[in-house]
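tl;dr need the bound structure. longer version: we got a ligand (NAP) that a collaborator sent over and nobodys looked at where it sits. i said id run it. heres the input, straight from their email, havent touched it
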Amino acid sequence: MNVLLCGDFDAHAFAAWHRALAEAMPEARWWTLDQARAQAAAVNAAVVANPPPGSLQGLPKLRLIQSLWAGVDRLLADRSLPAGVPIARMVDPAMNAAMAETALWATLALQRDFFRYARQQRQGRWQQHAQRRADETPVLVLGQGEMGRTTARTLAQAGFVVSGWSRGGSAAEPGVKSLAGDQALWQALPQTQVLINLLPLTPHTLGLLNAPLFATLPRGAGVVNLARGRHLVDDDLLAALDSGQVGHAVLDVFHAEPLPTGHAFWSHPGVTLLPHVAAQTDARSAAAVAVANLRALRDGAPLRHRVEPTRGY
Ligand code: NAP
Ligand code: GLV
């Protein structure tokens, strides 16, 4: 099997992925974009990480596009993707667990005012606030897919009052209330102390974290965006933070990454930011996931983690 490996990697990342994938599937030939272009008719599959638009054109025997990213919004934005070639995304339990850890840290810090105490430390201010229990802190997780379900389960196990919102409603997780549809979202928001976004970016979810949504939360609620920057209307969040409607925000993802120097989020006291590390792809486990799908393709077995391009995730 001849596999194109390409993406927005630097040379170091490319070498690390190449090593991990070649170790996991030594029987495949792993080609760079230039090598694949030179032998276009022989490429069977592509393993990609947000490749430059146009990279997957002109490969007549391409039978699988396997993303190393869980979110495929940038990949699907490439209008030249070959029609009808199956696309699979990264689903890795190690990534789901990492995401749940980030969400748990953010939720605990919001519930127990640890971000507020960090701000007070910078001001040299000694001030205690009333302590809130986990079982009186309602958390709403937007998205109940791989990441959202693991996160909701982890938070429920930690004692939080957890609801999970999705389009169709999610399979029962112990201690998690399943919510489906727009009406259920707007009914849940006024009771939500911590809002965690784990939705895919699609035309329906773009800009969902906006002024009307913040206005519907109880005053001082926490907002945690771990999915995509374009889910959030930055100026609406800044206004909600400045008015106190949102108490604190934890942001891992941004419209432009790296977040441009001088963006208001860098220095806003109500923002804790991370450089898109909530759940990093771990080459050790992710290579095995990608290779399992390549072997399924080779053996004529069903492909896993298929993306529905018209749905956007
Ligand atoms: P997933 O398994 O595809 O789950 C998507 C969930 O969102 C599903 O529950 C789906 O509902 C729900 N959904 C989609 N559109 C909706 C809508 N319009 N209204 C309500 N619910 C909607 O995705 P995942 O693996 O959990 O990943 C989620 C996102 O996390 C990725 O797309 C990516 O953007 C982000 N991510 C971020 C990082 C990071 O480090 N920050 C790392 C990995 C992923 P149904 O089940 O009803 O279809
Ligand atoms: C990271 O954000 C991913 O989608 O894998």
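gonna send this back to them w/ a short note. The pocket of NAP (ligand 1) is lined by residues 70-71, 95, 143-148, 166-168, 198-202, 204-205, 226-228, 252-253, 276, 278-279, 313 (CB under 6 Å).
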